[in-house]
Amino acid sequence: MAMLPLTTESDAKRQVSPELAASYKRDLGIGEPFGFLRPWEKLLRGERLGTSAQGITGDELARKLSGSVGVGLMALPLALAWALGFALVRTQWRKGRWAALGDIVPALAFGTPVFIPALLFAPAVVERGHMLPELTAALVTSIWPGIFLGTLVGDSLETELSRDYVRTALGKGLAPSTVLRRHVLPNVLPALLDAVGPVATTLLAGSFAAERVLGLPYFGQLYVLAVLNKQVAVVVVATTTFASLLVVVSLGVEVLRHVVDPRSREARA
Amino acid sequence: MSGVPSRARWGLVLLVGLGVLSLVAGRLFPDWLANTCPLGVDPMRPDRTVCELAFGGLWVSLAVGLCAGGLATLIGLLVAAVARLMGGAWEQTLLRGVDAVFALPDVLVVMVLQLAGQSLADAGHSGGLGPFGLMVASLALVGWAGPARMFRNRLATLEGQEFVAAARALGGGGTHVLRVHLWPALRPFALAVFLSRLPTAILTESTVSFFGIARMEPMSLGRYLGTSYAALIYEGGSRVVLPAWALLVLLVLGASLASQALSASPRKAT
């Protein structure tokens, strides 16, 4: 447990030291034309950003980002599994006396910040290594997005299943699984795609807290430490990197929507 | 309360109950709470009990959530009203800006705003904002876009109704229609929007405080957890985490139930 990264006052250096002020000026190009591009120029030249002890190079940034994206990619199938499981269970609950649980479980998942399950798992996994902290981070990060997706998919599925075209398809003798696969799921997919953006944001932002608690030295940990140590140039670069990643995800979703949803093509036309 | 859906009533009762409990236990009778706490002292702060810290934190978290949620709702309402009054291309441009702010991840932006605010405060330019005010301002600056979208859509729906068309036909101007005809219909929805912002603000504050970035004093639930979680290495250390978690969950459950039920109520929607 000695490795649990407890936040202390020494982490949060509250006064700006002269060295730090000089690093601000040097890294951010304050007062120079296009000074805001200076952090990126330094990174591309392979130089270290920030003060020497807590700074970062472009290679380190890429490695840390890939670690966080890896955790996010592990969390994605877990979130989909939570979503499917919850959507199915919720459909069952809706018919019985457990209907209220269909509302309480999402509130419970939403009301649980990622750091709380991470804290509960941390004593058992932090020192074991062998990818266990990464898997735990993925697990705790996936819970709320999974339940959110499950609620969305469950609602959408229920709406589609009650439509006339489903009754017609079943009446014509198609098997329920075929109706589901060929007719219902393509109509549920747009609702799922709508949720991908917020879910991607939640997965990446949630991984910050999980990485901090579980001591994973990836992008989230870098970001939190950069803010705590007032490494403004690192924060600028990390924020723009994170925002660019989200833009790429959104763009990917839009392209996918264009391919799978004919209604989006018609709307644009 | 007779027209309020039962789920919303349960949510509001839960919220108000937690507020009163945190006020009475954490603020008015802290000594009684300290002497009767069944969870014992916090291993990281042997002079304070877990109950004192949890209920004290609940009070601060709730206050931050109420202030930030209220401010975000107010800003959102103003932006939506301005957008509808301007109309046309200006409205669309404003809405694209709202969409851009809406897409930002709350926790990250609040962290950046805290960094900027604290750097200004360290340089002697705090503008009179303490840690509490800085947190409320950060959360409101991040959280207004959601309410703005919701209010704008609701206003657009209401403006399509016959009573608004009649008021316009009788010569009512934009501001008059907004104040006299739309606002009374919008008020219950505003409460639902405010309640929907409450849990988001509380959770964002908790996460940022947990990281040790916000300087909330007295401690909020998040800061309490962030400074005490090393207690987990002790036997039974989870008693430090679980009460704070339970209070957070109850707070969010109350706000979510009330918000969902109020915004779904057909009587209130029209």
Characterization of this structure:
The complex is a heterodimer of chains A (269) and B (270). Chain A has 269 residues and is an all-alpha fold. In chain A, 74% of the residues lie in helices and 0% in strands. Chain A has 11 helices and no strands. Chain A has helices at 18-28, 38-44, 58-95, 101-110, 115-125, 132-161, 164-171, 176-214, 219-228, 232-260, 262-268. In chain A, helix 3 (58-95) crosses helix 6. The longest helix of chain A has 39 residues, at 176-214. Chain A starts with 17 loop residues before the first helix and ends with a helix. Chain B has 270 residues and is mainly alpha-helical. Chain B is built from 12 helices and 2 strands, in the order ααββαααααααααα. Chain B has helices spanning 6-28, 30-36, 50-86, 88-102, 106-122, 131-143, 145-159, 162-169, 174-210, 221-228, 238-264, 266-269; strands at residues 41-42, 45-49. Chain B has a two-stranded antiparallel ribbon with strand order 1-2. In chain B, strand 1 (41-42) and strand 2 (45-49) form a beta hairpin. The longest helix of chain B is centred in the N-terminal third of the chain and has 37 residues, at 50-86. The two termini of chain B are 18 Å apart. At the A-B interface, helix 4, helix 5, helix 8, helix 9 and helix 10 of A face helix 5, helix 9, helix 10 and helix 11 of B.
Explain the layout of strands and helices.
The complex is a heterodimer of chains A (269) and B (270).
Chain A: H1 18-28, H2 38-44, H3 58-95, H4 101-110, H5 115-125, H6 132-161, H7 164-171, H8 176-214, H9 219-228, H10 232-260, H11 262-268
Chain B: H1 6-28, H2 30-36, E1 41-42, E2 45-49, H3 50-86, H4 88-102, H5 106-122, H6 131-143, H7 145-159, H8 162-169, H9 174-210, H10 221-228, H11 238-264, H12 266-269
Antiparallel strand pairs in B: 1-2
Helix pairs in contact in B: 1-3, 1-11, 3-4, 3-6, 3-7, 3-9, 3-10, 3-11, 4-7, 5-6, 5-9, 6-9, 7-9, 8-9, 9-10, 9-11, 10-11
Listing every helix as H and every strand as E from the N terminus to the C terminus, the arrangement of chain B reads HHEEHHHHHHHHHH
Mean pLDDT of chain A: 79
* Total number of strands of chain B: 2
* Helicity range of chain B: over 70%
Unreliable parts of chain A: 9-13
Compute the separation of the termini of chain A in Å: 59 Å
